[in-house]
Amino acid sequence: QSPQAKEYFAGFGMGEAEKLRTEVKVLQEEVRGLELKLGRTPEAPAAEAAGEAARGAKEDPKSRPFDLLSKCTLFGALDEEQRRKLAGCMKEKAVESGERLVKEGDAGAAVFVVEKGIAECKKDGKVIRTCGVGDYFGELELIDDVPCAASVDAKEALVAWELDKETFVTVARDAIVANRKRCADALGANTGAIAELGAYARGLLADRVQKQEAKAGADVIKQGDDGEKFYIVEDGELGVTLDGKEVRTLTAGMYFGELSLLRGAKCSATVAARTDAKLLWVGREAFQAVLGPVADSFESHARTYS
Q1: How far is CA 89 from the centre of its chain?
Q2: Which fold has domain 63-170?
Q3: Structure confidence by residue, pLDDT tens digits, 129-178
Q4: Where are the domains of the chain?
Q5: Domain 189-302: which CATH class?
Q6: What is the CA 162 to chain-centroid distance, rounded?
Q7: How far is CA 78 from the centre of its chain?
Q8: What is the pLDDT of residues 225-238, one digit of tens each?
């Protein structure tokens, strides 16, 4: 019995104290019976408290922006330490539907990464791009030191993480620019539909591409599979096979996978690496957001396939 309990019971007469002890014991037994009935063990409260503490540790506010940055293609060229530095400087920004985060023509002041909700990028009042969870905006103005090319409004209640210009430039810009140049060089070798993209769209695409390597003999996509990526050949040679017959060769600057994304169809052919190859790719959402405006050019180019 605890010192506090002994002190409490000392204030009663012998009979009253004994009676109270009996009642407390009965109540304790009833509580234990209920806990067992509910599937709880005596250790459960302590375990739950430990679980809450662990969840609290996991939900460190700065772990949220770090997780976002780790999945964000813009920051893919950064190492973990750099991403942690950025995450430590980011501020949570919650806005209601219709609120403006960036105004066209203003000086670029920050990069935003969307954690929840949808934002719309508007140029001259027209929506040119939609940003969902994991998407970002404001980076081009900080990379190129130019005024904001578009306004950005919350389409619905939105939570984003804001990274200030000074931190972005100091920690991230050089690595992002170097990676962007490598990707832009590969895109610049393209003479197809991508060549018709404006500078802004090409910058968006260069920031969103990811890299992939394919060993000689490996299939990159297979005929009949669901198409989920758009590929650009950075280096190497690949063969396109239709119903077992090779119909086309792909080399640096050429692309494939666009028709499945445009038409919502299965892959119409198999593409395999003839030599070790380096590829750039973007997923369905990035393809539709950035390359959707030149869909007709892709279709026209497809008619030239042999």
Answers
A1: 19
A2: Jelly Rolls (2.60.120)
A3: 889 999 999 998 998 899 999 999 999 999 999 999 999 999 999 988 88
A4: 3-58, 63-170, 189-302
A5: mainly beta
A6: 15
A7: 15
A8: 998 899 999 899 99
